[in-house]
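Quick one: structure tokens for this chain, please?
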Amino acid sequence: MKSSNRLYLSLLVVLTVGCQQVSDGQSAMSRLFMLAAAASARVTPAAGGTIQAPTMSLTVPQGALEEETTITYTSIDLPNPKDSVAPLQAAYRFGPENLQFNKPATLKICYDAKDVLAQGFQERTLQIQYNDLDTGEFVSMGGDVDMVNHCVSSPIYHFSSYILTAQLLGVGNNAPTIGGAAFFPGRLIAGLPATVRSAIIDWDAGSAVATVRFYYRTTGSGGAFKNIAMLPDANDGSGQFYTAKIPAADIAAAGLQYYIAAFDSLNSGRTNPAGAPAVFSTIAGNVRDPVTPIRFQTTVSQISAGFSRDLTVQVKGTASATYYPVPADTLTFAAGKGTTSRPTWLSARYTAQIIGSSFLQGTYGNLNLSVPISVYPGVMNRMDVLYNDAVLPDPLHVNANSVTQLDAAGYDAFNNFMFVQPVFSAAGGIGTFGGPANYGQLTAANLGADTFGTITATLGAYSITYNVFVHGTGAFCLFDTGLFDTSCVFN
């Protein structure tokens, strides 16, 4: 097998420890971390791949990367707790730093449940969080907690440092927790809108998240904070994320200062960061690239009807070579040649249907993207035998000793025509078909009496059969029999 189709791990020992609870507590979990403190893997766009460690796995799906990439990870020290967030047991730094995924990768971290309970935390509050080493901020990626196997899974969109965390809950009603802010694009671009996303969770059974608002102003402006509502993300299956779209007119190259405020139905509130608005967070800004500010992450020039391609829209500023994925404002398969959809909130899916030349189009803010594509026929699901460019009648009437030229046409599920060359055969003694030089020629047999038979066109596992009526030449009659036969030929 070619190396480009395989995933290689530079681990000296293959570790088969699963993600179940370790029986002898924190010391055993620590030993597992030390067994594979660092590793690397070569992952391809076509195949994706999985990095497996004793208590962690990272699954990169097909199409998530633009090029073959060496992915690395290193176990690192846990950061200090912050507000109600307590880092636990596992922390990893992934590289290349700031690598952007076109589709989210899945990070799974397993934990020692006994240790979690011994520290006074509840398993259901466990999350995977991005730890910004420059600012010290935590940004929640959410968490699907498997309390049977004691593992937490979460989608991640770029590489940096990730930690397992628990929430410190008090007695009585707790304010909703705010998991920081993730921005798309990851660095704001002046004059383009941005999506801000945050995990907002009310852990109490007697209340629910009532309001979430995002407050922001231009960095360095010193002005009043504007605010917009953050609403539940309809494309998020975890039920944890809220999003808002910041208008393009409010985003400048200087970036934004911001904070998030959330209140539950019992009017218990929290801000992130704590102490807002006197304390706030900052996201850097940029100006758009003057040459190629928007693109699809991969190029595609042709596709067969019935097939789909996932193409994430990306935008770029001048500060670095990084293209950041964004949720496109509009998606179009031009000239009605196909349909568009969103398999995830961030992805664009184009499905081809009608053959011909077209364009895949996307927009983001005031940027437009258009790439040419040709649609070809898809998988055949129907075949017709033709006579004089029309579908063969059933039954077909021919005369004995005659020659009839037949042809065939194939069609896919969208009724797109395709050239086909099936094998023709005849049954019932009605005649024969010619060889390659006389493809599709049916020569009827020299039959005196009318005869029924069939012809069949076969292409691979697909075949279609028609009835054929051969009109015979007639039989010579004997006058002394005393019988009259209308099929007789008198001479």
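The helical segments are 26-35, 113-118.
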